[in-house]
Amino acid sequence: MSTEVILVDKNVNKEETYAQAVGIIRSGGIVAFPTETVYGLGADATNAEAVGKIFEAKGRPADNPLIVHVDSKEAAINYVDDVSDKALKLMDAFWPGALTLIMKSKPRIFAQNVTADLETVGIRVPNHPVALNLLKRVQLPIAAPSANTSGKPSPTLAEHVYHDMEQKIPLILDGGPTKIGIESTVLDMTSEPPVILRPGNVTKEQIENVIGTIRFSADLHGNVPKSPGMKYTHYAPEAPVYLIEDDSKLIRKAIEHVQGKGKKVAVLSSTEYPEADFHFPLSPETLYSSLRKCDMTDADLILTGVPSERDDNDFMMNRLEKAADHKWFS
Ligand code: TXA
Ligand code: MG
């Protein structure tokens, strides 16, 4: 299968473009599209065969459920049971936006493989004109995980999607770089108080300002995860990634040590290290593309500088810990 990439940010062929994407999704195919967080790989969430193609293209384990994207709060409410007042308040406050709500799914609406046989479903309204245009035209809920090969860094550019999905999907809508760069906050509304399963751009404090106290999942610290996706290796480039405290003396010493063994080192940090073999910037917007750039070098080891003061809201640290499999350089 050849993979077509269509630029949509300059409104080129707008109607035609969307018609093509809508046609593919309605006939059970998959289309990659931009959201404000990362690019998604979308299929009709009511069609098990179509959803199966997403798992196949990504090489994603079947027990990891997908997020369903809809165009409005009203659409979301149609698909779930027992919507709490808190959930309604959060939809009003943060949608469209980077907050996924886990709620009880109405039976027999979504294909079983979307929810990995759970009784709950994760839903959000993405805040991106291309995603919203597509959703409004297709008039179906779209199941869409991040559009990367399973285990690799999420795509923040159409080029990243092309790299991972070439020959595997028919169409990529190119809306330019994604704004936020890190996946949505996932909040489980089926427990009381609600629980953050995955930290993201929408913070605990912002949510608490709307609905009062919530918790962070204990899984964030390596316990058996409730969010099935959290137990797998994630965001990892080829060379091993190590965390290191963002202290210039420590990092310089580490670079010297690695190079002393005849190996090449890439450093991801907010400040530059000219003595490193490769250096890439580290911020929420650049994290995934920097991890991907490491794969284009012959670095043997990747050091990521992280601040010594951290908290559970730190969604960049959460992703880095997974990319590094919690390894610290020593
Ligand atoms: O920003 C995002 O959320 C992006 C864009 C494309 O919308 N999507 C995304 O999807 O990150 P994905 O599939 O890569 O991550 C979904 C996360 C996984 O950790 C999954 O385990 C969790 O949400 N999840 C989905 N449904 C769930 C459910 N019913 N219960 C618990 N966790 C769920
Ligand atoms: Mg993902």
Describe the overall structure.
With 330 residues, this protein is an alpha/beta fold. The chain has two domains: 4-216, DHBP synthase; 241-323, Rossmann fold. The protein contains eleven helices and 16 strands. The strands form two sheets. Strands 1, 2, 3, 4, 5, 6, 7, 8, 9, 10, 11 and 12 form a twelve-stranded mixed β-sheet that branches. It has a four-stranded parallel β-sheet with strand order 13-16-14-15, sandwiched between helices. β2 (31-33) and β3 form a beta hairpin. The chain is globular. The model has no long low-confidence stretch (mean pLDDT 93).
Give the strand tally.
16
The assigned structural class equals: alpha/beta
For the sheet with most strands, the description reads: 12 strands, mixed
What is the CATH architecture term of the largest domain? Answer: Alpha-Beta Complex
Sequence stretches where pLDDT stays below 50 over 5 or more residues: none
Count of the domains: 2
- Give the H and E element order: EHEEHEHEHEHEHEHEEEHEEHEEHEH
Ligands, ions, cofactors: threonylcarbamoyladenylate, magnesium ion
Radius of gyration: 20 Å
* Number of alpha- plus pi-helical segments: 11
